């Protein structure tokens, strides 16, 4: 049956009648299909997987959608122990994220040997350093003929994208860095890592990087799921090589107002009690935003809302619809204002600024999101 369930004027519209004529809401907007047609609500995006040779080996990446005129691509890079699917699919499959992915082409880069079905590297293989992994990205963009990107990285992937942005600032319009640790391991960290390696397996050490000690102690179903994925991964030897490269990273040496800093808008995201929480909140870049970690996503609406405001601050998606989280906040604030009058109105303005409204400063460089 065509038409919205509550708004169609006739029970059985004529088969030749366009769907929007059978729905008052869709008829007023002259849509090509009904807003209640679940089969057409979320069209399947074109998905293609490519591999390209670089000076440091082959890299595999998956492209979703088609390039949009005058818009950058969203390029993601995953953390250690994960690939692009296990790291980013929960976020990009979230309902409120669909408006974003319909407006941007996405490029999901898998670190060498991390893609599904990847063969195990031979014994003695020299895995690229994180700096060399960052130097692979220009080959990907040249292959796709993309000029600029908005990077989204988690953990090791955040470090790689930050290094790439330092080396190629003209090609990066914005960065979302989640749980980034820009500092090299000191002697104490190195000694602790070596000592842990004597008593813990590689999967357990990686889990200690992905989750806090409180989360590991809880041994929730999610922890068990990732422990099983990493422990029984057919490319566990490759994961260990990626892990070693991460632990041998150099210091990014960020300086507030200095020569070594990111020139593009940056949104920092860190999970509560995350292993690298202190490193993120002390970065001399921009305001940090406490949000659930990306691969956990107990509340993906918060990260989606923050990302949408971030894009709007950069000048994209100006007419974007409000997320369900924004709508619920707006409704509650409006209700409070109607009850309390002018005194509540001032409080409403204060609360709305905390709920994600952009400040009047430089677009995209500062943003406040309450979580």
List keywords for this structure.
371 residues, alpha/beta, Rossmann fold, 8-stranded mixed sheet, 8 strands, globular, disordered N terminus, disordered C terminus, NDRG, cytoplasm, wnt signaling pathway
Describe this structure in words.
This is Protein NDRG2. The protein is of the alpha/beta class and 371 residues long. The protein has a single domain, classed as Alpha/Beta hydrolase fold, catalytic domain (Rossmann fold, 3-Layer(aba) Sandwich). It has helices at 24-29, 38-41, 84-92, 98-101, 130-134, 137-144, 156-167, 187-199, 202-210, 213-218, 221-231, 236-247, 277-281, 300-313, 324-340, 342-354, and strands at residues 47-54, 57-64, 73-77, 106-110, 149-154, 172-178, 266-270, 288-290. Strands 1-2-4-3-5-6-7-8 form an 8-stranded mixed β-sheet, with helices on both faces. Helix 7 (156-167) links the parallel strand 5 (149-154) and strand 6. The chain is globular. Mean pLDDT is 74; it is low at 1-22, 35-41, 286-298 and 328-371.
